């Protein structure tokens, strides 16, 4: 199939950029040094490529992601890097499942759900989940007293990963990881799990990095000047051209995560308005009705979550179409 | 089932508010005066309630919405209020399908796809699709010469519908509709289709109003002081509580359309951060791990599009669970 035959809006994955990103990351963080995060692409077919590149342990954000990875035969070592209050679906899986805990309630949830292994989620500065570092040891002790195996700690420096200033990113990452190592000293275990695409080569303290976006990329991460290439695009069709210099493509709010703002046009120009099913653009080169435009999402994760399929393309050839099979909860 | 048993994040539709909104709109714009827009809720079960309230003609934004409505037996009069460049899926449907055209290319698409009826989409001031009013008559003539029946005109005053200042909203709506009526004089036909929730009682020029959000509502439309009640909520579970005054619920970017900014908390308080699967909040009343929170989306349409199901609730009772069956394209 040719890209021109795809119905739009369509999610595209550039094969060459994908290969480059997989290889670059596998060279920097080989094998178990990377625990790829499924939340970015939600696609087991892509996870299988990451496994083939040497990374066989994965990070998940939702129960559904863990379930889907187990069903796809990728359940060798799945970390649900998030708190849940009902682990019954996880306890039933034929996979190695480790769950994050940050409170006595989440420890009890793990026990009740038949989970055997946990990590202690530590707050390293991001106002989100995680127990204060000085309390991590006590929670690990509680977990062990309830029969759980504690594999170590995790702590996400999410307030650092997106900072364009590399020196500042390094500084905040170092502060965060000092807190995580403090917690690890009290908790023990083999895992110090942390990091993201923005700190993949900065965070030298963690035993494994939970990066996900590196494989797709977006305009927010592009500002960080990382060695990864833009692999993810939304393809739209120009459905209307105005005499006033703008045109309209058929990919809107329901095809694009908007929390990081408007997307960019791959071929240059400006995005004026994003409506439910319309993108009003001022392209750099004139376009006509029926032309295709490639749009670069501002945030890859919530963009992918809108799409049922992602098409792997090489120039104008569609090599493969993968189901985005880990959507929902 | 009880709301407390729902897995989160979950999309809730408050039954009482829904009934109020359906009844209020049906009283203001009875029967064919309203052509409910499917893009807001993408749910045929809810469309059936709108049909039961007297509105049997519907507006759609995508081919998939038209297809799904036809399959659900709601195809008496479906208007695809958008341009498409491949109408072959539409031409095959066992339903009355009318398609918007704004260019010779879209007229040819309709002919090629086996479409019999069109409306001329007119630009009434919003920088999006639509032909200039002074050219609408020529396009109608072209369409008729190609064997199409031209049912009239449509023109969306999308630059007016969201303005909180009612006087300004009225003024821009009046200007827009003057352009649409100018086009209609040249085009002819029984339809002058326009409007949205924000102009449902202001736009007295259109023969039918394409409102959709009224049935759900969101924080953006709430600012307009319309007589419709908030019916749509995202339900989250508190998974972590910090000693620093904030808590974290499990409904994030992938459960909420973010183009209108952060959502509100139904019970009061503040939303600090929206991450992929986390909502960091400062609730008005203290919460504990396991508590549920109801979140009011900033924009209903792209929020609904993330969810597979919507649960109709009355207090703590789940009355029904409807599939959001018109998602995708």
Describe, in plain words, how this protein is organized in 3D.
Two copies of one chain form a homodimer. The first copy, chain A, has 329 residues and is α/β, with parallel strands linked by helices. The first copy, chain A, folds into two domains: 3-11 and 228-323, D-serine dehydratase-like domain (Lyase, Ornithine Decarboxylase, Chain A, domain 1); 15-213, Alanine racemase (TIM Barrel), CATH 3.20.20. In chain A, 26% of the residues lie in helices and 24% in strands. Chain A has nine helices and 16 strands. Chain A has helices at 15-28, 44-52, 63-71, 88-91, 104-112, 136-145, 166-187, 219-222, 300-304; strands spanning 10-14, 57-60, 77-80, 97-101, 117-121, 149-155, 191-194, 208-209, 232-241, 247-249, 264-265, 269-274, 279-283, 292-296, 309-314, 317-323. In chain A, strands 1, 9, 10, 11, 12, 13, 14, 15 and 16 form a nine-stranded mixed sheet that branches. In chain A, helix 6 packs across helix 7. The longest helix of chain A is centred in the middle third of the chain and has 22 residues, at 166-187. The two termini of chain A are 32 Å apart. At the A-B interface, strand 9 and strand 12 of A face strand 9 and strand 12 of B.
Structural key phrases:
2 domains; 9-stranded mixed sheet; alpha/beta; 7-stranded parallel sheet; 24% strand; Lyase, Ornithine Decarboxylase, Chain A, domain 1; homodimer; 329 residues; TIM Barrel; elongated
Q: How does CATH name the architecture of the largest domain in chain A?
A: Alpha-Beta Barrel
Helix count, DSSP H or I runs of 4 or more residues of chain A: 9
The multimeric state of the shown protein is homodimer
Low-confidence stretches of chain A: none
Number of strands of chain A: 16
CATH topology of the largest domain in chain A: TIM Barrel
User: What sort of overall outline of chain A do the alpha carbons produce when their principal axes are compared?
Assistant: elongated
Number of domains of chain A: 2
Assigned CATH class of the largest domain in chain A? Alpha Beta
Structural class of chain A: alpha/beta
Work out the helicity level of chain A: 25-40%
CATH superfamily of the largest domain in chain A: Alanine racemase
Tell me the greatest interface.
A-B, 55 and 55 residues
Radius of gyration of chain A: 21 Å
Distance between the termini of chain A: 32 Å
Order of helices and strands of chain A: EHHEHEHEHEHEHEEHEEEEEEHEE
Mean pLDDT across all amino acids of chain A: 98
Major sheet description of chain A: 9 strands, mixed
Kindly estimate the percentage of residues of chain A that lie in beta strands according to DSSP.
Answer: 15-25%
